[in-house]
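> example.struct
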């Protein structure tokens, strides 16, 4: 197994024995990680747990996080045109300016029901109409993916975008929306230890198995034909069966004797980075939410999470915490991001600058796979090459897709089953 995030750990667990798990970092869990500083705990960034698969639900609730789970009713908001409304936008127009509501309803009714779906913009216009597109979906997605919606393939959002009926749109506009539209109306979160408690619970089980777990073991070369890999220490290891969970383009760069077509395909796979500004502050009042979306261009960040609202144990008593997320490609200046985050929080009346406890920025270099028009074809070429050597991939970055922690666990399990 290459990678000790949730996908790699889940694959190791499923194999049960005679595995070697190689993790580059000195800690297992990958992105399922929590940092503690000055009484605040921050995940990389807010990680809310949804599980549908019965076996995973059982393992999470009765084993890895037994006795350590909160079930949380989502409070997700949107801030635009100076008002807070409920998420998802298309189900909750109530409170927005009358003109915006009219644009959205008229656009929804007039949306063309037929025609080719060539890109994400077409998909949004078809399913939600021009008003929803222009007031929320276009600016939000363009901020998150850093490209315009015409450059995204129609598969970019898939199951994560809830589609309302006309009745739901109208009821939402009148303030009569039902509770809980969308895939994540309730979620789980650990009572203590932040989201890393999940990885810790799973890793404890894996470490108890008759296999080998090695941290600080970065794979630097992969020879598929010879079935050998090299570590940064120079050590070489043979392998019989292999599961890869490291990011697909990075995997392609590790390959020895890779065909030109595979290398060229891998070079076309693009990702978006996320810089998150973590803010700890004395509670200054203001709107309460677990996370809120910011579609408008005037805010350079796309979302603000509030970990302490999900679980007050994540901040000292009397304090609130915020995680302000910026999507980008290329480098950003962390000091500028911090200043922009503070300005945004002040404008939304969520902090008092004189009562800050913590402010810092961290960057996740590979955060969101960019579903542009090259994605599907280029990904298929690289995956087919790996599959031709019997190599399995798993997890969000190994499979180069948009997916959740549960998906990482499930695809790790599936990869191990495919090897058996
Ligand atoms: C901003 C953001 C917010 C998210 N929020 C949520 C959420 O709310 N809910 C949810 O369910 N999911 C969320 N996710 C998704 C979730 O983080 C992932 O689906 C999941 O953690 C992926 O696990 P993984 O094992 O596939 O990958 P990773 O966690 O990336 O693990 C891969 C591991 O491979 C290691 N590795 C890489 N290269 C090498 C190498 N050469 N040699 C050895 N080891 C290597 C890495 O160090 C890493 O530990 C979010 C993701 C992001 C970016």
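> example.seq
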């Amino acid at each position: 197994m290459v990678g000790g995030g949730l996908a790699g750990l889940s694959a190791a667990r499923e194999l049960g024995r005679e595995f070697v798990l190689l993790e580059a970092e000195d800690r297992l869990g990958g992105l399922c990680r929590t940092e503690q500083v000055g009484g605040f705990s921050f995940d990389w960034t807010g990680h809310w747990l949804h599980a549908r698969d019965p076996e995973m639900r059982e393992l999470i609730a009765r084993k890895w996080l037994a006795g350590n789970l909160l079930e949380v009713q989502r409070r997700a908001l949107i801030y635009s045109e100076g008002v807070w409304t409920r998420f998802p936008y298309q189900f909750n127009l109530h409170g927005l300016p009358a003109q915006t509501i009219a644009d959205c309803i008229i656009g929804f009714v007039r949306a063309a029901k037929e025609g080719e779906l060539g890109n994400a913009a077409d998909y949004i216009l078809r399913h939600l109409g021009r008003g929803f597109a222009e007031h929320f979906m276009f600016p939000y997605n363009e901020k998150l993916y850093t490209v315009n919606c015409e450059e995204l393939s129609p598969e970019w959002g898939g199951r994560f975008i809830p589609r309302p009926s006309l009745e739901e749109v109208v009821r939402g506009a009148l303030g009569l929306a039902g509770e809980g539209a969308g895939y994540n109306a309730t979620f789980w979160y650990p009572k203590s230890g932040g989201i890393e408690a999940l990885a810790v619970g799973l890793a404890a089980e894996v470490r108890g198995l008759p296999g080998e777990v090695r941290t600080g073991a970065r794979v630097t070369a992969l020879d598929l034909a010879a079935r050998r890999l090299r570590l940064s220490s120079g050590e070489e290891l043979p392998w019989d069966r292999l599961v890869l969970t490291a990011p697909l383009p990075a995997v392609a760069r590790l390959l020895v004797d890779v065909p030109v077509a595979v290398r060229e395909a891998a070079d076309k796979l693009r990702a978006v980075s996320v810089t998150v500004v973590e803010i700890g502050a004395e509670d200054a009042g203001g709107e309460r939410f677990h996370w809120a979306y910011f579609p408008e261009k005037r805010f350079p960040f796309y979302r603000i999470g509030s970990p302490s609202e999900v679980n007050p144990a994540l901040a000292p008593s009397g304090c609130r915490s915020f995680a302000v997320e910026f999507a980008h490609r290329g480098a950003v200046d962390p000091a500028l991001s911090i200043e922009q985050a503070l300005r945004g929080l002040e404008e939304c009346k969520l902090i008092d600058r004189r009562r800050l406890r913590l402010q810092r920025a961290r960057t996740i270099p590979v955060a969101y796979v960019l579903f542009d028009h090259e994605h599907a074809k280029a990904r298929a070429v690289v995956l087919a090459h790996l599959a031709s050597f019997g190599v399995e991939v798993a997890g969000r970055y190994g499979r180069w897709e948009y997916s959740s922690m549960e998906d990482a666990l499930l695809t790790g399990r599936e990869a191990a089953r495919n090897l058996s």
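> remarks
Residues 2-8, 22-25, 30-32, 45-49, 218-219, 245-246, 250, 274, 364, 367, 395-398, 403-405, 408 surround flavin-adenine dinucleotide (CB under 6 Å).
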